[in-house]
Amino acid sequence: MRRALTIAGSDSGGGAGVQADLKVFHRFGVYGTSALTLVTAQNTLGIQALHPLPPELVVAQIAAVATDLGTDAAKTGALGSAEVVEAVAWAIQRYGVRPLVVDPVMAATHGPPLLAEAALQVLKAQLLPQAALVTPNLHEAQALLGRPIRTEAEMREAALALLELGPRAVLLKGGHLEEAEAVDYLAEGGRLHRLAAPRHPTPHTHGTGCTYAAAITALLAQGRGLLEAVREAKAFVTRAIREAPGLGRGQGPLNHWA
């Protein structure tokens, strides 16, 4: 039984965060474990309340999992504060949690920031260099690089530039571009791979980034190669969006069993 650990915030609506990650791990036949970083009161209309957890409690959760159940791969999601980012980076190094997928979650569609401004520099300095893969969307990549990304050409340049921050690979997601296809770029070892899928116009895309990163993490835990894992995860996410159940009165969740 392969094992995957998610280090992220909770989503009481179940569309994103730890709840979505655990569903996806199960969908791919991987035993899921978790370390909560923050708790939200959240649904398809947004985040109504948020409570960050103490860094020492986050570390204790990672230690409890790593020293008993073990991990074959892990991912991070919403981390909240600079102190939690620093604590997570320390625990990842201390307990040898590898390979690590970093989803640099910075904000929800509606609600407070999920990564404090002060935490961005800590993320870049301490967590990204430990990542086997970082999976920013365009807004997150712009924050990490401090420059706009508006075209596919700029996406290619940005994906390679993000490699210079230390991760072994970068998956830059282009879902926010106004194009007929949803195009992502995987940068690894100086090489670029273009991954495209049909775009499905729908409001029900809540948790897409979490779901995508969790699927990659589960496939890496199974021993898949990175490019194969990313391709299979993208195909899964495309189906999950297309088959979204349409729950809630706002931006609904994907179908995590697609």
Please provide a written account of the structure.
- GO terms for molecular function: ATP binding; hydroxymethylpyrimidine kinase activity; phosphomethylpyrimidine kinase activity.
- Its EC number is 2.7.1.49.
- InterPro entries: HMP/HMP-P_kinase_dom, PM/HMP-P_kinase-1, Ribokinase-like.
- Keywords: ATP-binding, Kinase, Nucleotide-binding, Transferase.
- The chain is an alpha/beta fold and 258 residues long.
- The protein has one domain: UDP-N-acetylmuramoyl-L-alanine:D-glutamate ligase (3-Layer(aba) Sandwich), CATH 3.40.1190.
- The protein is built from eight helices and ten strands.
- The strands form three sheets. A five-stranded parallel beta sheet has the order 2-1-5-6-7, sandwiched between helices. It has a three-stranded antiparallel beta sheet with strand order 8-9-10, with helices on both faces.
Task: Based on the model shown, name its key terms.
globular; HMP/HMP-P_kinase_dom; 5-stranded parallel sheet; UDP-N-acetylmuramoyl-L-alanine:D-glutamate ligase; 8 helices; alpha/beta; 39% helix
State the gist of this model.
With 258 residues, the chain is of the alpha/beta class.
Taking all Cα atoms into account, the compactness measure Rg is 16 Å
Q: What is the rounded distance between the termini? A: 22 Å
Structural class, by secondary structure, is alpha/beta
Largest sheet: spatial strand order: 2-1-5-6-7
CATH class bucket: Alpha Beta
CATH architecture descriptor? 3-Layer(aba) Sandwich
Q: For the report, how would you describe the main beta sheet? A: 5 strands, parallel
Uncertain residue ranges: none
Dominant shape: globular
Oligomer type: single chain
| CATH fold category name | UDP-N-acetylmuramoyl-L-alanine:D-glutamate ligase
What is the CATH superfamily?
Ribokinase
